[in-house]
Riboflavin synthase
Amino acid sequence: MFTGIIQAVGKISKAEPRKQDVHMTIDAGGMDLCDVVLGDSIAVNGVCLTVVELTEKSFMVDVSKETLDCTIGFEKNSAVNLEKALRLSDRLGGHLVSGHVDGVGEVVKFAAEGDCYLLKIKAPHALAKYIATKGSVTISGVSLTVNRVESDTFSINLIPHTLEMTNLKHLQAGAKINLEVDMMARYVERLTSYQEQNFQD
């Protein structure tokens, strides 16, 4: 489990194909790895991955074909948002994030508005129903608040601190990004559909 509060921006320094999967070496940037052990989970661009090897300043992960098929942002030399798994004693500064990407969205607009940036994203139609005004959404691992929703497109206001601390500063129109919707929205849908089904029965 994660919070969506990015701890560092790292870089994929190596990407070695292994049959249909890929073995990756990720430079940890400024993230402290002293408390990380083999088997720990680290979110990379919002994707929960397991540490299989470790050095002082980098870690290695195996990324399956299934993960590669449904996510984006794992090309060699790519800048990646990093977050270590949440501990029970940590503050929950963002929102509860599973690290299981729901789909890939497309940037419609990324433009300066004063000191901030307006980010507009078109979500896959099947995910749009889970995205609500003032609700939470995770974009490439970053916990953000939705400002406006229009059909399948939603808008977010990015403050300078968020741009400085994440790789979102590199976005441009047409870019693809990993999306994870608020898990509470999925539970509400499941509860509602279950109750409706039982009522009909």
